[in-house]
Structure formats: C-alpha cells, structure tokens
Amino acid sequence: MRKSYNRKLKRLFAIDLKLGNFRHKYKRQMELYLPWFAKYYQESDEQPPQGIILCTGNKQSSDRIAITRQNLIHVAEFFTVLPLKELLQAKLQEAIAIARRRLPYSKDEPS
Fold first, then answer.
1. In Å, what is the CA distance from 31 to each residue of 37, 42, 51, 68?
2. How big is the CA angle at 63 (ends 95 and 97), to the nearest 5 degrees?
C-alpha cells in the first residue's frame, strides 16, 4: 500500500498493487483504508481520499484497475500489449451492443 497526493485535485490517493485478478475482498480492504486515511491524513481543505487497486490479472496481456470512492467501485480493463485484431473487433462490438441497450434511440435513426 502506497499513498500519493495530487495537488490539483487536492486529494490523497491510496494505491494498492495486487497479483492476480480483482477480488471483492480487495474492495473491502480499501474501504477500511480510506476512512483511516481521511481521519489521520486528510486536511480540512482537501477532498476525501480515493483508492486505486491495480491488479495484474492471470493473463500476461491484461491488467485491471479498480477505483473506489464513497463505496462506489469502477472496474476497467486495459492491455499491456496490443491484442489481436479479432479481439479488438469483438470488444468494439460488445461496447456498441452495451451502448445501444443503455441509450434510447428513435426508430428513424440508423442502428
């Protein structure tokens, strides 16, 4: 566990590196760290601390990053090497399908 401070955001960040895929117990650990950092390190003019959990994943080609803030968690996947074209196309089609399900559109618009 390391702590870092961002001057522009006026916020302390707790950064935790984990080997393997993201597990929910890592989120629970971070939820214990953040109030402790807020109590003992946060100054009165600063934003509440945020946590970043970096997980290496089981595959050599992908890492996961999870950010927790006020009991919210966001997980994103990124690649350390360029994946195959087919994988990129599949990920793009998956993202398009998710966006179409989330966003309302009229029947007159092309889908």
1. 10, 15, 8, 8
2. 5
DSSP letters spanning 55-88:
E--SSTTEEEEEEEETTEEEEEEEESSPPPHHHH
Closest CA to 65 of 80, 79, 75: 75
pTM of the model: 0.57
Classified as helix, coil or strand, 101 is helix
Closest to 29 (Cα-Cα) out of 13, 64, 59, 53: 53
d(CA 11, CA 32): 17
In 3D space, the residue among 25, 79, 81, 90 whose CA is nearest the CA of residue 53 turns out to be 25
Task: Supply 65's token pair.
Answer: 């990053």
Q: Which two tokens stand for residue 86?
A: 């087919």
| pLDDT tens digits for range 31-90 | 888 899 899 999 999 988 888 888 776 554 445 555 555 556 666 666 666 667 788 788
